[in-house]
Design brief:
Elements: E1 2-3, E2 7-8, H1 11-32, H2 35-56, H3 62-80, H4 82-98, H5 114-121, H6 128-138, H7 144-151, H8 155-172, H9 184-203, H10 214-230, H11 235-248, H12 251-254, H13 274-287, H14 295-308, H15 317-330, H16 334-348, H17 350-359, H18 370-382, H19 386-399, H20 403-421
Antiparallel strand pairs: 1-2
Length: 424
């Protein structure tokens, strides 16, 4: 993290901002009822911290410092703006009725009200795509291009969605609260999707020098644990948490000594986190017990089959393909179809997998989705069709976001070009 005029931000300060930003934003929304205002003054408080903390040090209660600064900025702004004068008076009356205004508690820590904000952003009055986009931007702190990448749309399109969602929340007066039991079935899937999108950006970063953004993956897991405590009877919450743990357990083996990408086939499975795998397996069982399988429970089962296998060759590929069949019925999408095709290639051979991938060639949503081009390239490579594989690797390279992915694809492309030159 950097800031013009202030040089590099120290790692301890950056860690504080990562931890406190979501807490701060949620507390400000609860206090002032305006997401735009909350974002603006939260940013101003962080700007103030960037000025004062490098020389004076991070305060003992950084969340309280940020909240006090942001709250003062918000009140000053509301008082200066006549259009907000009436709102400030109403907010003060509501605050008096509710008791002490949200902010730092008796120990100087911000209360964790992020789940309320998650449910606000996942309100059914918002289009599904806007719910996830807004929450990723506001609570996870992802940039608009990173959110756009997650949805395979241009950044300008995503920026419009985020603005539209904020306007809808403001105009519809969507409440800041966790929904009641009668609303939960409709609201929960949106929150789960948000958390999983955060995890996905953390485990497979969309851009930048590193393959992983571990802090995002761990933040998603932490939020899922909070949700699991709040809703212990919801099997899909268990499924999501189990899925993320089963995937995150491989993180150390997925990156080489120099930050390079290590594929599943080549990973040292002794480096996988067995404690995390055991917890994830238990959650997967809980997610699949007591009713029809859900989206995250099925994905957790797939991840568990990968994690329990000694190597790629002994993985239960027939069962994985069968689970992808279930997943396609629950949530049909070209991305799921790509993953199923890769599993079919392991079960039935590269020709069978490639045929399924070629059937998806006309899917608009796969344009610019480099895992699709990479999967085709890898199967063509396995089949010895090096010219076609090289073309597919070039296509994948054009849309790969992180430097480790780009380096991996360049190596594979070089192998294909060398094999062609040798007349294979």
């Amino acid at each position: 993290m950097t800031r013009d005029g202030h040089g590099e931000v120290g790692p301890s300060i950056e860690a504080v901002f990562r931890e406190e930003r979501g807490l701060l934003l949620a507390a400000l929304v609860r206090r002032f009822g305006d997401l735009d205002l909350a974002e603006e003054v939260a940013s101003e408080a962080i700007e103030a911290a960037l000025v004062h903390w490098p020389s004076g040090g991070v305060p003992p209660k950084p969340g309280a410092w940020l909240m006090t600064t942001a709250r003062r900025r918000a009140v000053d702004r509301l008082r200066r703006d006549r259009a907000y004068a009436a709102r400030l008076a109403v907010l003060q009356v509501e605050a008096d009725r509710a008791g002490p205004a949200p902010g730092a508690d008796a120990d100087g820590e911000l209360p964790d009200e992020r789940l309320q904000l998650f449910f606000t952003c996942a309100h059914p009055a918002l289009p599904a795509e806007d719910r996830v986009a807004l929450t990723l931007r506001c609570l996870a702190g992802l940039t608009t291009p990173e959110v756009a990448r997650a949805f395979l749309v241009p950044p300008a399109t995503m920026a419009k969605r985020i603005v539209r969602a904020k306007k809808k929340i403001r105009e519809a007066r969507i409440p800041f609260r966790v929904p009641g039991a009668d609303e939960l079935p409709e609201r929960l899937p949106g929150v789960l999707q948000v958390i999983y999108s955060i995890f996905t950006e953390g485990y497979a970063a969309s851009s930048g020098p590193a393959l992983l953004r571990t802090e995002l993956a761990e933040e998603a897991i932490r939020l899922a644990r909070i949700l699991r405590r709040l809703l212990p009877g919801e099997r899909e919450v268990a499924g999501l948490l189990g899925l993320m743990l089963l995937i995150h357990a491989r993180r150390e083996a997925r990156v080489g000594p120099d930050g390079e990408l290590v594929l599943l086939d080549d990973q040292d499975r002794a480096r996988w986190d067995r404690t995390m795998i055991e917890e994830g397996q238990g959650l997967a069982v809980a997610a699949l017990t007591g009713g029809p399988a859900g989206l995250y429970g099925v994905q957790a089962a797939i991840a568990a089959l990968h994690d329990e296998a000694a190597d790629v060759a002994t993985t239960d590929w027939p069962q994985i393909v069968a689970l992808y069949d279930v997943l396609l019925r629950l949530a049909p999408s070209p991305v799921v179809a790509v993953n199923r095709a890769a599993a079919v290639a392991m079960r039935d051979g590269a020709e069978a997998g490639l045929a399924l991938l070629d059937e998806l060639a006309g899917e608009q949503r796969l344009r610019g989705y480099h895992p699709y081009a990479t999967a085709r390239a890898d199967l063509l490579h396995r089949l010895g069709r090096f010219g076609e594989a090289a073309a597919a690797y070039r296509e994948a390279l054009a849309s790969a976001g992180t430097e480790p992915e780009q380096a991996h694809l360049r190596r594979r492309l070089s192998e294909c070009e060398q094999a062609r030159g040798e007349g294979h």
